[in-house]
Known about the structure:
By secondary structure, the protein is an all-alpha fold. Helices cover 39% and strands 0% of the residues. It has ten helices and no strands. It has helices at residues 2-21, 25-32, 45-50, 59-62, 104-108, 128-133, 145-148, 171-180, 193-196, 219-252. The longest helix has 34 residues, at 219-252. The relative contact order is 0.06.
Amino acid sequence: MKRILSYSLCVLMSLASYNIWAYTPEDCIKCHREGSPGSALHVSLSEFKDSIHGRTIMCQDCHTGVIDENHERVKGSGSVDCSQCHDQENRHGLKSERKCRPQCYSCHTKHSILEKDNKLSTVNPKQLKETCKACHPAECGETTYLSWFPSIQVASHSKQDFSRAYEKDNCLGCHQGMAAHGEEEPLNNQDCQICHLPLKGRAPLWGYIHPKADYKKQPSMFAAAIVYQLVILVLLWGGFRFYIRKFSQKTKRPGR
């Protein structure tokens, strides 16, 4: 009986100590609010409150590993598993190394998640170019020195069905679920992929939609870039020699 009582007392003491050190949302805010010197991992409370999560859940609903002060010393204790609430599996970047794969927050942000219909949302169609650009700069319009000349294209569309967005910036118009979550399921009614990502057996569209001078993935574009550079060098050298000869002829005339 004494052993049972002593054991029960130990359990109660441990629970009491746990409750003393257990973190509350207010404790999290003290260190993690913007401007707090307590942590470098700052959160904008106003943005979080306006987000989808800020209206319904608290910090530890997502950060389940943060229980007490030990999380400051244990690396990765604050990590979040979105699959606790979301059925959608993160299959984005499966061909990349695990450490390089994008996470849910890479596109949706960590604490300012908004509905996709909200113009400020990072996954709103108007914001997708900037969101995707973080990992896919060339596909979103940024070209290197070698890619600049070969990337000149003939603009098309601005026609046909006006309910469709035919801009190059419309990433999900072609890539649909594959670009978002790594699945074939479409996310909207855009059907650019019918022509730009043809099925097996269909003729591919001529040219590159996202040209870049990559000798492995786009060797023809890389070759064209090299040819452009050689042509430019020849023209510069020819112009330089022409003006040198012209200048030398002028300097020789007075002595004759």
